[in-house]
Amino acid sequence: MANDLWTRRRVLKAIAAAAGSAAAPTMPRSTAATEPDLELRLTAAPGEARIRDGALTRVLRYTGEVLRGRADALRISDSYLGPALDLRRGERVRIVFRNRTGEPSIVHWHGMLVPEEADGHPRFAVDSGGEYLYEFTVRNPAGTYLYHPHPHGRTAPQVYSGLAGLLIVREPDEAKRALPGREHELAIVIQDRRSGNSFSYSRGMMTQMSGLLGDVVLANGRADAVFRVTPRAWRLRLANVSNARVYKLAWSDGQPLRVIGTDSGLLPGKPLERPYLVLAPFERVEILEDFGTRAPGAEIALESLEFSSLSMGSMMGNMMGGGGMMGGGGMGGMMRGMMGPEQGEPLTVARFVISRDARVKPSEVVLPASPPAPEKPAAALYSRVSFRRMRGFFNGRDFDMDAVADDERLPLGRPTVWTFENDGGGMPMPHPIHIHGVRFRILERRGDGAPQDLREGLIGDAGFKDTFLIFPGERVKVHVVPTEPGMFMYHCHNLEHEDGGMMRNCLFRA
Ligand code: C2O
Ligand code: CU
Ligand code: CU
Question: Any idea what the Cα angle at residue 69 is, between residues 262 and 8, rounded to 5°?
């Protein structure tokens, strides 16, 4: 009963707020049953940030305030990044978004299971000066999520200008898992930018095709980031918030990475070890790192290793039937000279300095039990992913604000197996595919598969996901059970592809 009231109000107010009035949204009458646990205000506006020596960088940034509830629900960042939202599962949250960017915008809670009207679909974008009121109950399991703008056609420049933040969900049962506590946890937002002190954004032909690639990596908004850690186990939450860059993350001293979580929560069973990890735009991974295995005072780096399979030279080689012969070396180098930064260049993400404190031996972590096997599907969908003449398509269609085709309807509360196939025709490119409003499992990958130089770094198939990379020639089957009714969306999360229209609506209904 109380819940129904809550839902109805939420709808009405979202509609009122979506009308774009600059006036404050009408607050509900105060009745204990419908008041949120937490009320936040998030404002997006121009600002300045120090990225490195020299001139300040003009950015767009989110700032936040707690209007009601726990003061620690927001952790202010010391860079242009938005405050990290620190939410608890089950909490009822109200967020007032104020757009002061100078252009239309809307916030999307990436990976979160929220009602349709709180999802930040581009049809809800408000003009600068306007506000949007979000209300949702935190239903996701503990994990590392994100928020970012989602206005149609302007997501890439707004994110590149600095609009993005972490959204962390916590649960009381994490305490029983012998995971490092909050004092031994580091969340790292990884973004690439073009060198220099400007975040100015331009979308040329190459950018439209490969997506915007920078040549330096910022970790939590800083170039040459250094994190000081103690010789013990740390929980690292790594989020790729780059417009288009795919990272091949590894430790400079060659130790493997121990994965304990994916996009949508902790991995079941045991940690997974990988020599390196492939992280596509807007994917997240949690790792458990025992810095105590290094010498006191040691410095190690988190790097993105070189790989050639996704370079333009290699892609074009494939397109021209060269079977990737032109990748890497000669042609790749020439391409870089002509076109700027490439996928697969070696980069340093951040350095870690290990203190000389006494070593703390790690305890055995207890990850959640394996979830039941995916249920037999009630429906099957197929989506051909293609990229031609600088634009991406799903089953030959690109974005249309209100349209939903028959092959984009999923039954609510019942499992669908959704097959995505990257046809590799036109320009054979990898695409990070994202579905709003759900967490899903990957059942199988078929086809030519991931390139040899990335294969060992894929972990996605093990846990719950909301974004996955599909390589040219691959077919990926996703098992999804929508829980929120309404119109959501799926798209390529290469932001230049997304803005270019590689995005569609999908409808979840009974
Ligand atoms: Cu992270 Cu539709 O986006
Ligand atoms: Cu999303
Ligand atoms: Cu794409």
Answer: 80
* Residue owning tokens 């790989």: 307
What are the C-alpha distances in Å from 151 to residues 69, 103, 127, 259, 499? 29, 9, 10, 33, 9
Ligand 1 proximity of 61 Cβ (cutoff 6 Å): no
Closest atom of ligand 1 to 111 CA is 1
- The single-letter DSSP state of residue 173 is G
Distance 33 CA to ligand 1 centre (A): 32
Q: Which tokens go with 499? A: 């803005």
pTM strictly above 0.90: yes
> Going by CA atoms, what residue is nearest to atom 1 of ligand 1?
110
CA–CA distance, 381 with 410 (Å, rounded to integer): 8
Mean pLDDT for all residues in the chain = 90
Contact 445, 474 (CB under 8 A): yes
What are the pLDDT digits (tens) for 273-289? 999 999 999 999 999 99
Tokens matching residue 205: 């032909």
Query: How many Å apart are CA 345 and CA 306, to the nearest integer?
Result: 5
**Residue 32's pLDDT band (boundaries 50, 70, 90)?**
very low
Ligand 1 nearest-atom number relative to CA 110: 1
Total number of residues shown for the chain: 510
CB of 121 sitting under 6 A from ligand 1: no
150 CA distance to ligand 1 middle (Å): 7
Atom of ligand 1 nearest to the CA of 467: 1
Tokens 């120090």 sit on residue: 50
- φ, ψ dihedrals at 318, nearest 5°: -65, -40
Residue type, 387: F
| CA 110–ligand 1 middle distance (angstroms) | 5
Ligand 1 neighbour 108 (Cβ under 6 A): yes
